[in-house]
TrEMBL record:
Subunit structure: Homodimer.
Catalysed reactions, semicolon-separated: dUMP + (6R)-5,10-methylene-5,6,7,8-tetrahydrofolate = 7,8-dihydrofolate + dTMP
Domain Thymidylate synthase/dCMP hydroxymethylase, residue spans: 3-282
Protein name: Thymidylate synthase
Described purpose of this protein according to its UniProt entry: Catalyzes the reductive methylation of 2'-deoxyuridine-5'-monophosphate (dUMP) to 2'-deoxythymidine-5'-monophosphate (dTMP) while utilizing 5,10-methylenetetrahydrofolate (mTHF) as the methyl donor and reductant in the reaction, yielding dihydrofolate (DHF) as a by-product. This enzymatic reaction provides an intracellular de novo source of dTMP, an essential precursor for DNA biosynthesis.
Binding site for dUMP: R21, R146, R147, R186, S187, G188, D189, N197, H227, I228, Y229
Listed GO biological process terms: dTMP biosynthetic process; dTTP biosynthetic process; methylation
Matches recorded under SUPFAM superfamilies: Thymidylate synthase/dCMP hydroxymethylase (SSF55831)
HAMAP family per record: Thymidy_synth_bact (MF_00008)
Amino acid sequence: MQVYLDLVQRVLENGVRKENRTGTDTLSNFAEFYKVDLAEGFPLLTTKKVYFKSVIMELLWYLRGDDHVRWLRDEKDVHIWDAWADDDGYVGPIYPVLWRRFPFLKASDGSSYPKLGESRDKDWVYDEFDQVQRAIDMLKNNPNSRRIVVSTWHPGLLDEMRLPPCHIMYIFNVSDGKLNCHLTQRSGDIALGIPFNLACYSALTMAIAKEVGLKPGEFAHTIVDAHIYENHIEGLQEQLKREPRKLPTLTIANKPIDELQYEDFTLEGYDPDPAIKFPVAV
Ligand SMILES: Nc1nc(=O)c2c([nH]1)NC[C@@H]1CN(c3ccc(C(=O)N[C@@H](CCC(=O)O)C(=O)O)cc3)CN21
Ligand SMILES: O=c1ccn([C@H]2C[C@H](O)[C@@H](COP(=O)(O)O)O2)c(=O)[nH]1
């Protein structure tokens, strides 16, 4: 995928060296952007092997609403989130919870915020909001809305999370019968995270498009701190020497997203170059 290689090239050429909490320095560009047309194939990198099963399992895990990795780690044998879980598998209220069970408070009269001049001293009870279902309902009932937003930045919960969300907001936008998705990411690990994030959100967009009766459109991605860890430079330079190959195709079964399983995602024509090992900065 040329747009990915161009991103790598820009950060290698212009990146500013930065220290960060992981102890492994990065080369970083501020505010990178690219987009891909999902009609041109499923955007799974071919210049290294990307583990499709892990990508889809991660997406299905996000959709489950869990606050632990037990399903992903123990049942599905996918270990990409293990480093951020405790011994019980607990990760706190991160993506799955924020997507499907976003916590908020509600008063017994049904309101979630006091009216002007009204006392804050009410009986507040815990409630949860399913942002993905809301997006699907809006796409079905009001597809031209510009408010089809899923937001995962919850300042009140950051201390409870093992890792604050990196992809903090996505917006669906319908144009010409096609479903587009724009993802805003505050921090992006270009070698490891970005190939996963790009494929994950593209698969999500395709699955939701199917459910709401639209064609898949474009996936667009803004990355605010777009970085390459110094121990990933060599592997990415190797990728730059490789010629991008034809993209595979992805077919998704016609089911509501809550019923989707890994077997419902059929990838065809994926013929990547060999995998490249990149150590993950924890
Ligand atoms: N530094 C860092 N980079 C990330 O990309 C990242 C984090 N931290 N923390 C949270 C999640 C976890 N993500 C990860 C973590 C590990 C892999 C990884 O190890 N990928 C390997 C093998 C995948 C597999 O075995 O299935 C790869 O080659 O892509 C990918 C994404 C993305 N995120
Ligand atoms: O989906 C993800 C999750 C995480 N990342 C990367 C981006 C950063 O390299 C680290 C997070 O560190 P912060 O200090 O919290 O920014 O994980 C990603 O690329 N994609």
